[in-house]
Design a protein that fits this description.
5 helices
């Protein structure tokens, strides 16, 4: 799926209500939840791969946002997010190649931390902490 089609799909299917940052935060938490469920069932490799693929789609959208010419984030944050996206991509490829539940921990933690930042920024008006 191309960055453009992924972004269009996201916009079309985004839940109504709430800010884009809130939606992104909730999506990251949902992906983390699904990976945690897969982590608790290490013998179900297909469920693990499905959860990781969903997470990959989400991170592809986030990466497209921070790489867009009209992204309003400061350059340092954009650079850090791209580096994080690259790490997530590599970890996901590793999990898909060799599905092992212990590899999911880093992805789950990253999703939860970024979601917490996005959702905290919503509670503090005037800050734009999202991708």
């Amino acid at each position: 799926m191309s960055h453009e089609s992924a972004t269009r799909s996201y916009e079309r299917n985004r839940p109504k209500g709430g800010s884009p940052r809130e939606t992104e935060g909730r999506a990251l938490l949902e992906a983390a939840r699904r990976m945690a469920i897969a982590q608790d069932a290490p013998d179900d490799k297909e469920a693990m791969k499905a959860a990781v693929r969903l997470n990959w789609k989400l991170w592809t959208i986030l990466q497209a946002e921070v790489c867009a010419p009209d992204c309003s984030l400061p350059l340092e944050i954009r650079t850090n997010m791209v580096n994080l996206c690259n790490f997530v991509d590599k970890r996901i490829v590793d999990v898909l190649a060799e599905p092992e539940s212990e590899k999911l921990g880093a992805l789950i933690n990253i999703n939860r931390q970024i979601a917490a930042g996005l959702l905290t920024a919503i509670e503090q008006p005037g800050q734009d902490a999202g991708p």
